[in-house]
Amino acid sequence: MRVAILEDDESQIELLSHWLRLAGHHAFPFSQGADLLRALGADRFDAVLLDWGVSDLSGVEVLRRIRTQLRSSVPVLFCTARAQEEDIVVGLKAGADDYLVKPMRRLELLARLEAVSRRAQERQVPPELLEVDVFRADLHARTIARDGRPVDVTAKDFDLAVLFLANIGRLLPRKQICERVWGAYTQVKSRTLDTHVSRLRSKLDLTPGYGWHLAAVYGCGYRLDQIDPLPDLARITGKSGGSGLTDRLTSDYAGI
After folding, report:
1. Residues with Cβ within 8 Å of residue 9, at least 6 apart in sequence
2. 50-72, pLDDT tens digit by residue?
């Protein structure tokens, strides 16, 4: 498993990382809550070990942002010295899957980590439908609709749309997009991805006038955000360069 660790005590980081490596897992330590949140928004982790007291954000605040801002269901274990019943209740109510009090025991930690990961996998039954705001994607039939009206998309358009829709507000690196949609990164020219994104933006009306912002992040990748709709001259005048502005869709793919 890929396990992120939020901990600002170097000795604890070394100990937890060592335990995880012995069990065949990969450890990714972070000493700042903001750094962990950025990493979770850009990459995939199978579990998170979370300390309560780090310098920039409390563990509870980090957890709340994981669940609300990132909308992530990644398994989270609190690993903290705070042993009061009230603290445990706060942590669990904030969205923690389990709560361990320091000093931790290696076998217990690994067993609990395996347990929360197993429960998370059991909950992840592949959905038949992905519904986000006005968009509805049928993952079995590979069709997509906006406001109940079908949108004509190619196979690559569909994969790209689902990828974006399942990751609204997340930065998706170019490499990750190409691997998920084309199956390889080195075989996809940068211009090919840009062309597909531009076409998808037009087809699904992923523009500020319709409350969406699909934009390139220089040197990194792409990000889709839902925003407050802005006045759009094309909508007011009825003139647009695209086809069927009321029949489009946004895209995001689950599991990233």
Report:
1. 51
2. 998 888 888 999 999 998 888 88
Is there a contact between 131 and 189 (Cβ–Cβ < 8 Å)? no
More confident site: 34 or 190: 34
Q: Which residues have a Cβ under 8 Å from the Cβ of 134 and sit 6 or more positions away? A: 146, 147
Tell me the fold of 129-237. Arc Repressor Mutant, subunit A (1.10.10)
Q: Partners of 77 in the beta sheet?
A: 49, 98
What residue type is 32 in one-letter code? Q
Q: Residues 123-168: pLDDT tens digits?
A: 665 568 889 999 999 988 899 999 999 999 999 999 999 999 999 9
CB within 8 Å of 161: residues ≥ 6 apart? 135, 137, 144, 153, 200, 204, 249, 250, 251, 252
Q: Which CATH superfamily is domain 2-123 in?
A: Response regulator (3.40.50.2300)
| Full-model pTM | 0.51
Q: How far is CA 49 from CA 77, 83, 102, 118, 220, in A?
A: 5, 16, 12, 16, 27
Q: 3-class DSSP state for residue 45? A: coil
